Amino acid sequence: MLKQMGRTSQTVLIILYVLITVKAFEMEVIPAVRVVARIGETLILTCNTTGCALPNFSWRTQMDYPLGGKVYNNKTYSTLTMSPVSAENYNDYLCTVICDKEKKEKSVKVELYSFPSDPVIETTASLVVGETATVICKVHAVIFEVHDVFPADHLELLLKKEEHILHSKTFEGDISTKTETKTVAYSFNLATEDNGKEITCVARLQIAGMDFEPKERSTSLKLNANFGPQNTFINASPGNLSMEGHSLKLTCVTESNPPAQVFWRKHLAKETIQHFVENNVLSIPHAHFTDSGQYICEVINPVTNKTEKASVNIVIQAPPKNTTLTVFPSSSVKEGESVIISCTATGVPTVQIILEKKIGDVITTLKTEDGKYTIDKAQLKDAGKYECTFTNKFGNHSLDVELDVKVPPQNITVLVYPSENVKEGENITIVCSTYSNPPSQMILKKVNQEREIILPVVNGTFTLYNVTKNDTGRYLLDVFNEVGNNIKVIEIAVVGKLEKPDQILPLIIAFSCVTAVAIPVVAILIYVSRKAKINGSYSLVKALRLKV
Ligand SMILES: *[C@@H]1O[C@H](CO)[C@@H](O)[C@H](O)[C@H]1NC(C)=O
Ligand SMILES: *[C@@H]1O[C@H](CO)[C@@H](O)[C@H](O)[C@H]1NC(C)=O
Ligand SMILES: *[C@@H]1O[C@H](CO)[C@@H](O)[C@H](O)[C@H]1NC(C)=O
Ligand SMILES: *[C@@H]1O[C@H](CO)[C@@H](O)[C@H](O)[C@H]1NC(C)=O
Ligand SMILES: *[C@@H]1O[C@H](CO)[C@@H](O)[C@H](O)[C@H]1NC(C)=O
Ligand SMILES: *[C@@H]1O[C@H](CO)[C@@H](O)[C@H](O)[C@H]1NC(C)=O
Ligand SMILES: *[C@@H]1O[C@H](CO)[C@@H](O)[C@H](O)[C@H]1NC(C)=O
Ligand SMILES: *[C@@H]1O[C@H](CO)[C@@H](O)[C@H](O)[C@H]1NC(C)=O
Ligand SMILES: *[C@@H]1O[C@H](CO)[C@@H](O)[C@H](O)[C@H]1NC(C)=O
Ligand SMILES: *[C@@H]1O[C@H](CO)[C@@H](O)[C@H](O)[C@H]1NC(C)=O
Ligand SMILES: *[C@@H]1O[C@H](CO)[C@@H](O)[C@H](O)[C@H]1NC(C)=O
Ligand SMILES: *[C@@H]1O[C@H](CO)[C@@H](O)[C@H](O)[C@H]1NC(C)=O
């Protein structure tokens, strides 16, 4: 029996041993040792046991603060559910399990974090190239408030330009319980190429052993660097040298952010440009040579008010145009007057002006000054056709004018046939020649007569037929035209009677005339008249007609 008992107890011991060895009481807390929980989320701590049929669980915090969660006990494990996790859960939790008087406990440290929103980037009001730009990154950090970054002392703020880190800052040891904005600022000299580059602010939580997403949050902005205007120039299409009638397009090219406002001007032009201006393009559909000149485009950056100018010289080529040929005071002047012949034209390139005088086939090129030719004292030889030729490489044109120089009667020659002393019954012929322009008229009057006798004139020839003594006397020959007159006195004496027609030589009575140049119209009368006489035909007129 004892033996049996001993056997039995041996067996029980073995079984117990086996039981103890296989099913030893153990416990664990999940997660173990430490957990970092995000404020607002749900955190479940599990206290699990093995090897205990009826474990007695209890949860408490260090210093016995409220648990801040709900405990659910199951047979072999217990959970502590914190939903949502709040600042009061920042604590050490201890799970105690009692199993048949055996007591085991383990603790877990609950740390908290909050990272609910992205950081905010701010920049200086207007970013201007060449000036200092400051970029500020802010994270609002209030400890123990759900919507802020916590724990702020583990925060790192990073400022990046594209992939390049500009600046970074950690806030270790900065355990402030007050509301605080964690900022990082970086200043740099803004360059043109920075425009459009991405500035990123990264807020990073650096907690050892932390395993959650996101560990970092970031915000980016594209730099809007104001610059310019710079490198401004005008592009002329098809070019700065164009032909009249063609279209012309001027484009003002500039580099500016924001886009520059463009103003067009023309140098020395009184009014603003009337052509089609659309921002930076000025178009002239049909260029006129008067469109030549300096065009200026002025650009202004609306943010910085900086301006820049560019200009281009446009030459619109054209054949001679608007040609004029004027004679001052008139194309018909009196001898001795001053005359100005002037030729003007416009055209590009500069119009060459040639003034020529044409008399018959004789062409004389005159020396002009600015297209002007001055005759100080006009003479009959200056009369004639004047022609102005306007030439440039795109064409030519000519104008002409007839200059008339009026000359009063001069170099008057009076011939009396057969002589001033004739016999009764003879015929007296008075031939007068003169030089004038226009041709002169003549009147022959007998003076000291009760009634004035005006003798008819035919082609400068007066004839007194069958003279009597009564014809003796003084005769006045008035030679005149519209610009002057000249009077000659002729004494006729009728003596005795005509006996026989004899050979009579004509006598020339030349009255001196002190007037200037004239063109001979009637000349060499002696020979002609003599010839006429010899031929028995007394008509001097006829003779003259033959000659002229
Ligand atoms: C408790 O531990 C056992 C053994 O390790 C395991 O099988 C069981 O899933 C755990 N229970 C919980 C709730 O973790
Ligand atoms: C568990 O233990 C506590 C004291 O530690 C006791 O008050 C309680 O009654 C026990 N519960 C059970 C079911 O044994
Ligand atoms: C206890 O755990 C079992 C199995 O894991 C489960 O079916 C049961 O619902 C749990 N009871 C409680 C009160 O959690
Ligand atoms: C630019 O000019 C405008 C108008 O004259 C003015 O209102 C503005 O303040 C100026 N801006 C700067 C940056 O000078
Ligand atoms: C016209 O443009 C050419 C080059 O394209 C330049 O050499 C010339 O000086 C310009 N002429 C004027 C009048 O601007
Ligand atoms: C022609 O020239 C005159 C004098 O030079 C000027 O007054 C006139 O406006 C011009 N006409 C044109 C069409 O250019
Ligand atoms: C004037 O133009 C005509 C054709 O229009 C040409 O034949 C002539 O040679 C030109 N004269 C001059 C002097 O250029
Ligand atoms: C004078 O003229 C008339 C008419 O022509 C002529 O008949 C006459 O013979 C002339 N007398 C002299 C003397 O020649
Ligand atoms: C000329 O006069 C004479 C006498 O005086 C006269 O006989 C003669 O007919 C006159 N001749 C003419 C043409 O008048
Ligand atoms: C000449 O004049 C006088 C006086 O006037 C006159 O009486 C006479 O008849 C005239 N003689 C001739 C020939 O006409
Ligand atoms: C007119 O007379 C003047 C002097 O009497 C002389 O020098 C000049 O050559 C004459 N003119 C002509 C056209 O015969
Ligand atoms: C005057 O002279 C012109 C040309 O010399 C001649 O044609 C005309 O017939 C003459 N007149 C008279 C009335 O003889």
UniProtKB/TrEMBL annotation:
Q: What membrane topology does the annotation report for this chain? A: Single-pass type I membrane protein
Compartments reported by the entry: Cell membrane
Q: Which CDD domains match?
A: Ig
Which GO MF term does the entry hold, naming one?
A: integrin binding
Which Gene3D superfamilies has this protein been placed in? Immunoglobulins
Q: Which PROSITE patterns match?
A: IG_LIKE (PS50835)
Q: Which residues cross the membrane?
A: 504-528
GO BP annotations, alphabetical order: cell-cell adhesion
SMART domains assigned? IG, IGc2
Pfam families membership? C2-set (PF05790), I-set (PF07679), Ig_3 (PF13927)
**Could you tell me which residue ranges the Ig-like domain spans?**
40-111, 229-313, 320-406, 409-493
The Gene Ontology CC terms held by the record are:
plasma membrane
PANTHER family cross-referenced by the UniProt entry? INTERCELLULAR ADHESION MOLECULE, VASCULAR CELL ADHESION PROTEIN 1
Task: Report the protein name in the record.
Answer: Ig-like domain-containing protein
Annotated source species: Chrysolophus pictus
